[in-house]
Amino acid sequence: MSIAESVERARPAFQRDVSAGLDALEPLIGRLAVGGTAVGGTAPDGSHVVTSALRTYRFDTTAQPASDIVPVAGVPVAAVPVAGIARVIAIRAAVPAAALGALDAALRESVHYSHGRQLYGGTVLDIPHARSLLAAALADALTADALSSAAVCLADAHTPTAPVAVALSAHLTCLLLAEAAQQVSVLAGSTFYARIAPFELIEQHVRDLAALAPLVPDLADALPSAAAAMDAWCGDTGSTAPRALLQPDVATAIASGAPGAIEVHAELAAAAEAALAAVEAGGHGTADPHQALELAHRVALLTAAAAVIDGWRQARGSEAIAADPLAMEACLRRIRGRVVRRQPPLPTDLVARLVAHAEARAASGEEMAIGPARATVTPL
Fold first, then answer.
1. Residue 254 has what pLDDT?
2. If we measure between CA atoms, which residue out of 99, 241, 217, 239 comes closest to residue 166?
3. Residues 6 or more apart from 300 whose CB is under 8 A from it?
4. Which of 149, 292, 347, 352 ranks highest by number of CB atoms within 10 Å?
5. CB 37 within 8 A of CB 215
6. What is the Cα–Cα distance from 136 to 187, expressed in whole angstroms?
């Protein structure tokens, strides 16, 4: 079974419970090793029970993290077990992509709550700030979906650059999921921490998504792993690599199909050019590890921008939200905000489009995003 198929099958389990989702992925990734930040006790069978988050998942305390045997700079690939490389790639590709199901469920519940909660003579979603929060969370979810879908495709295709691209995706997707879940928690107000039925699922998913990367070493060390070997990915000419942002046909497509995104694309293309130049100049190998990680994080953001645009181009003409130029623009604006470290509110027309999509999907019970196995994103 491919990684994409495994992710698609596991997503419904993640919607109910992140621990159940990890159990559903076990045929692909095995039982996960536990990170040093886990809090809990040891069960009679020797497995670790986490009590702060993922409280029902039983980590394997006897196995070393798969990422401990992934090749790094200076280590011959021939000296590393192939099975270990494949497993860590599978973990980093599958877990964040499937975990989007948890955020998807939290978004749907937050919409239901916001429609039912009366404030100031209207509902929560009549408040502009609440609408802006929902739109931002959905834009981040769509970005995570596009990025993780591209990573899954690269991993399944066994491309030479897949290990680095998947590591970058794992780092940023986990971050996007956690931050979007926090936005959702603000929408839920006191319901979030009071765990009021039937919306206690929001609190559960917010907690578990925030803990996912710290508790799973193969996710926690994804960025350092990628930072050590970014040359190949930054030289990649594929449609989901950062260099794709510089391609003239991308600018032409945006100018004709999404004119509102022309400016933000130009800014991201300039950022990509600067980041690629820094990598080529050896910036990723700097003596300052913080600078190397910052550069790798920036490359991850630009990879996400390329994945969002590629998904939009592939989906054009369909009814998928990925095909909507306003949704694509919203995703790019949120990515730009992270690049420049200043996140202004989304324009009202983008907010209106994303909120309308969220409301429609919540009413129908459908997923907010397209899902990896149905993804239009390709690594070609």
1. 98
2. 241
3. 168, 169, 171, 172, 223, 226
4. 149
5. yes
6. 11
For the stretch 283-293, what's the b/e string if a residue is b when 16 or more beta carbons lie within 10 angstroms of its beta carbon?
A: bbebeeeeebb
Q: Going by C-beta distance under 8 Å and a sequence separation of 6 or more, which residues neighbour residue 112? A: 199, 362
CA distance 28 to 350: 38
DSSP 33: B
Q: What is the dihedral of CA 102, 132, 354, 365, to 10 degrees?
A: 40
Q: Where are the alpha helices (DSSP H) in 195-288?
A: 200-215, 217-220, 222-227, 231-235, 248-257, 262-280
Q: Rounded to an integer, what distance in angstroms lies between the CA atom of residue 311 and that of residue 149?
A: 9
Hey, what amino acid is at 245? L
> What share of residues in the chain are helix, strand, coil (percent, to 5)?
70, 5, 25
Whether pTM exceeds 0.85: yes
Residue stretches of the chain with pLDDT short of 70: 34-53, 55, 61-83, 190-198, 283-287, 370-380
Q: Note the pLDDT of residue 341.
A: 95
342-351: long-range contacts (C-beta < 8 A, 24 or more apart)? 345/132, 345/136, 346/132, 346/135, 346/136, 346/139, 350/135, 350/139, 350/326, 351/131, 351/132, 351/135
Tens digits of residue pLDDT in 28-61: 999 887 664 444 445 555 555 444 567 678 777 6
- The single residue listed with the structure tokens 């994103």 is 377
What is the spatial distance between Cα 89 and Cα 115, in angstroms, rounded to a whole number? 40
Alpha-carbon torsion, ordered 184, 189, 192, 194, to 10 deg: 180
Cα 100 to its chain centre, rounded Å, is 7
349: left (phi over 0), alpha (psi -120 to 50) or beta: alpha
pLDDT, position 84: 72
User: Cα separation of 8 and 87, whole Å?
Assistant: 18
